[in-house]
Amino acid sequence: MIELAKLQSEFATFARQNEAISDHPRSFKAAQKIATGNARMTPCDQLEVYREQFFLRHVGSLREDFPTLELLLGAEKFEKMCAEYLAAAPPRSFALRDASDRMGAFLKAAAPYATDPLLADCANVEWAFIEAFDAGDAPPLDVSMLASIDEDAWDRAKIHFHPSLRFLDLSYPAHEFRTHVRNGEKPSRPDAKPTRIVAFRSADDTLRWLEVEPAAFALLKSLAEGKPLGEAGESAAQIDPEVGEKIGAWFQIWTQNGWISRIEIDS
Amino acid sequence: MNFKAKHKIPDLGVGIGARAKHYAGLFGDAPAASDPKATLDWVEVISENFMVDGGRPLRNLERLIENYRVIPHGVSMSIGATTGLDTSYLTRLKAVVDRIKPPWFSDHLCWTGASGVEIHDLLPLPHTKETIAHVSERIRRVQDFVGVPFAVENVSSYLAYKDSEMPEWEMLAEIAEKADCGILFDCNNIYVSGFNHGFDPNDYVDAMPQDRVVQMHLAGHTNKGAYLLDTHSDYVCDPVWDLYRRALGRFGGVSTLIEWDEDIPELDVVVGEAVKAKNVRAQMLGAAKAPATANAEAS
Ligand SMILES: [Fe+2]
Question: Which residue on chain A is closest to B49 by alpha carbon?
Answer without folding.
Answer: A95
